[in-house]
Design brief:
4 copies of one chain form a homotetramer.
Chain A: E1 5-10, H1 14-26, E2 30-36, H2 40-49, E3 54-56, H3 59-65, E4 70-73, H4 80-89, E5 93-96, H5 104-117, E6 121-123, H6 131-141, E7 148-156, H7 163-166, H8 174-177, H9 180-190, E8 194-202, E9 219-226, E10 231-237, E11 245-252, E12 256-259, E13 267-270, E14 277-279, H10 285-288, H11 290-306, H12 314-333, E15 337-338
Parallel strand pairs in A: 1-2, 1-4, 2-3, 4-5, 5-6, 7-10
Antiparallel strand pairs in A: 7-11, 8-9, 8-15, 9-10, 11-12
Helix pairs in contact in A: 1-11, 4-5, 5-12, 9-12
């Protein structure tokens, strides 16, 4: 395809692989031209797996050596601002993974850079592109369940996050790294911003995993009050072991809606009546949101080709960060925290 | 309760226990006064378990020694006619387990005896009293899915039936002993009688169980054409091992209806993402149809008290036997058999 | 039955009818001898519907005029203490509906009276007798999902509660009247007492219903920290309109368990592909917990007959009241409240 | 992509559109270069929708005017042989929709032509590429449910097939046009060929649709005996109205497996407790088998690129045709028909 959007993938880890696969296998309108990662071994492995023609240790090099239209940033959160500003400065469109950044100032800087350079900035909130979430949001917007009163969203992930992602010194912890999608989708589906939040956390598995980070937690439960008076709940459990679990339940003035389910495939087996029925669960996030990842990247490519603004914007990313910051403060200070305290 | 219906339970085996439990634990309007079984050990055990005041080796003795209003006959099929005629002759109301009898002449004799003596004759088709089947039948009758075109019913049971029940010399085999409910409920839900049937059977497990009965089969699949032009399917697998499975699916001119499910309890557990979700299955028929058994016996008691005719009649029992006979002939002769050939 | 437990039902309203039906239709070991209600019309109606031999305007009269062994108290919460003390004083065993009382002093008085008089005191926490909850609790206790880390329980009810039940002047509001079962079952399933709670509430429907009670809310979301470090969530929506919804989800160190479901019957129908599949929902609490109500009353009767202590004790009732009081204070003061502040 | 497989799509109707969409949107390794259809209006519409560069009224023209590697044949069944032989003669690889042909001689001719010309011949049995069917087949092959004893497969489609497809003069009727996938997948999953079949059909809707074709039926039920002694059932209902329904259930010596479900999306809504829960159903075959269609065409492209033989072969297509022919004869002659009678 002559006018395929040329992409430089930044980050050769799990998310970089996932997005490379989606782009290369399923999106004819995109072309992955370069892969960037400072970890040489991982860079080589992923470049080989997806037959990347060019691979670089840094975005600098990539910008210097090869032509492309856009970056897909899957590097750790603490690198998001620098990479985004560099990409925007070079006129590259930006697909930025969640969480957007470590604090609101960084979010603002990224948004400003994209605006000033006139590049597209899309956040990696794939739930907004998952066929079920899209259909559900559309039906809510059409009034099917009335005004949402209560929205509950959860993300429980199977494996322990990397060290930087669970330490409040280098990240905003699980509430950011695991629950970003819940922050975004509760706000999206409620149609209102957060007013105040209250968070409880628990540490059941830290000692088993020899985790010494201060304030480590593996279980979190957040209570949200929205500006429109609606209520919300976010739960995070990581590592949960049992699978990848991402579900939402909403009660509106007229009724209830459930989005998503534990079941990963419509195959039911029973071979032992004392054990019972067995059905596959979603094992991982790439399985659960396979279509969501493809659709969000297709959307990014389409926005670049058509010049239209993306769904899942920098402002959405900023609100998710704000929720995380308020909840983290709530957890540390054991009190409800108003968003206006930190905005 | 002064005017409780006094019942003599005939048969101390699994069905006799099940019906005793339903009557004694859940039906205040009934009183179990006597238990009859020629097997002394089983008689003693069941009498003890349910605190029967009187126990007898034969219905003769029971009739001679104790006053009661009705019998519940759970003895083997080949004894149904003799027991029914004896009970009717003594003016006792009759609750008769399926299959009704070995052949149509026996059915006719039982029906005639009950009519002549003016006693109630109710067949043990508990699906007709299961809350889900009752609701479904009512909705079909109200036209919700339009004229039924295709009805599929299955009964797959976990354990090997007793010797007499799987041998065509002493019973009509699994199509009768296991699938009687399917014969009854397909006819009930289709609202039409059988016109012709075609049956295929298979024997996968006989050698493993050292079964030497001629014509033994553990898997059966029957194709039915109804008088109204509708089609039907019955499947039987016994022993199936995996649980007790009794489900129906109906396609009507306007839509589809499914009745029943494999799931036995709304408890879902996952502790291993490679294994997946685990949900209880119905393990046994007493579990699956617990309410159906209570409701059918309540109905029997109510009919006696009110003098009203029962649902699930002798004629229904006769049609189920007719279907079995035609299907057995079909299986033996490897051709479709018309009901008119045997009626 | 000679030694049937004779019961005086107090309260002729919805719960009194429900429990009368369970006792009379399904529990041969009980005998409903008298019905008490100050509302003459309701008394007459319910007495007629269930063929009560005796009916009285007050417990005084009943105690004076007829012999019985036990009371089942379904009167409004603010009458629980007086009725319980009167019954205990007369040596009658007590089955007491939730919420136990308005405050902890009342709870203590009831517990003390029952102890002093040596009568059984059972609280109406039917979830502890529902077959699914019983099986689930047993499996959790056996370690199947490991140590519970997070338990979520919800009760969403279809209709607006009566005036006294939604006004904080005469009750403890929806958190008590609707969510009592959640307070009890989260504590039961977590195996730990509440340490602190934080509650958010919302009022979406009050103006539509012209409700002028101070602090009225129709939506509530409670965040719980248990003494063992576990977390919990309770949500209440009433009136929710869409059905009766009571479900629990628990994440333990080894896995997840879901108890209950929206689906009320295993009947699936589709007649319009644009509309989709239709499945019955539980419409009301008597439908959802039909077996739980029968089982809890059987248990009460059995405890009386055998002299054994009941599951679902006065202490359980007291803890549920304590949780409600802490959550109500949290909601009013907009801060987390420790149970030790009110115990 | 330099070595993209160049495809000439034959047929601009529903299937041609579906396969064009899959190839163009989701398969970077393929390039749709030409579209062929004798219907000028449909040709223009589909060519425009998918931006085909070349469009022709016949395969002759396409072969004459443009270079390509393979054809995807979605034309009516009665054209399959001629188109396949022409394509094979020109050295083009062939993806051929089901049913393969009208009779076994045509199947043999197609297979022979492909073999002689050394081109790949893949049949459009997308169930063999659907992730759920693939996983299920793999688990059966691994012995999870033991030797299959009974396999039931159904295809119920929403709309009335075109005239040629429901008339036995121009096609083999619904058993071929709608149920081809059931013929293929029962044989695949049972791991055995058909030995004999018995078919019943019914015509409930023909008069409503003014269909005058001889032997028209809208409901079919086939009973299969496999060479290995296993039993099978195929049901077809078309038009069924309620959605697109394609499910399989298999009982093996060790247990049961269900593949597929009615539910089309994991979104559950309830806004009216008298109506109940509403869940989307699969409305159409492109929805249900979206991934299956993509995967089968990817497989075709991969086989061409790698020179490896396809799953879903001409022989598989031939067996499905044989089953249809035997069942049609059974239906016309009202007797079981052995495959050996027609092979």
């Amino acid at each position: 395809m002559n006018n395929a959007v040329r992409i430089c993938m930044i980050g050769a880890g799990r998310v970089g692989k996932n997005h490379s696969r989606a782009l290369i296998s399923s999106i004819p309108a995109a072309k992955c031209v370069a892969l960037v990662d400072p970890d040489a071994a991982m860079l080589a492995e992923t470049a080989s797996e997806f037959s990347y023609e060019y691979q670089f240790a840094s975005l600098d090099e990539a910008l210097d050596k090869v032509a492309f239209d856009a970056v897909v940033i899957t590097a750790p959160t603490f690198l998001h601002k620098a990479l985004s500003l560099q990409a925007a400065g070079a006129g590259k469109h930006i697909f930025l993974e969640k969480p957007m950044a470590l604090n609101l100032q960084e979010c603002d800087d990224i948004i400003a850079a994209a605006q000033q350079q006139g590049v597209i900035l899309q956040l990696g909130f794939m739930r907004r592109f998952d066929p079920e979430f899209v259909a559900a949001a559309s039906r809510i917007a059409a009034g099917e369940i009335g005004q949402p009163m209560l929205v509950k969203s959860l993300t429980h992930g199977p494996g322990m996050p990397p060290g930087w992602a669970r330490d409040l010194k280098t990240s905003n912890g699980m509430l950011a790294e695991v629950n970003s999608h819940d922050w975004d989708c509760t706000r999206w589906l409620m149609g209102s911003n957060f007013e105040r939040v209250y968070a409880e956390v628990a540490n059941f598995k830290g000692s088993k995993y020899n985790i010494e980070a201060d304030h480590f937690y593996d279980t979190a439960l957040v209570n949200i009050r929205f500006e429109n008076g609606g209520l919300g709940s976010i739960s995070g459990v990581c590592p949960c072991g049992y699978g990848y679990d991402a579900r939402v339940e909403i009660v509106g003035e007229k009724g209830i809606m459930q989005i998503g389910e534990l079941k990963g495939q419509a195959i039911v087996v029973c071979t032992d009546r004392d054990q019972g029925l067995i059905t596959p669960i979603y094992r991982t996030w790439p399985e659960r949101f396979e279509m969501g990842y493809i659709r969000e990247l297709e959307h990014f490519v389409n926005c670049i080709q058509s010049g239209s603004p993306p769904r899942a914007t920098g402002l959405d990313g900023r609100w998710a960060v704000a929720g995380v910051l308020a909840a983290t403060q709530s957890m540390l200070e054991q009190r409800p925290v108003y968003l206006k305290e930190i905005l």
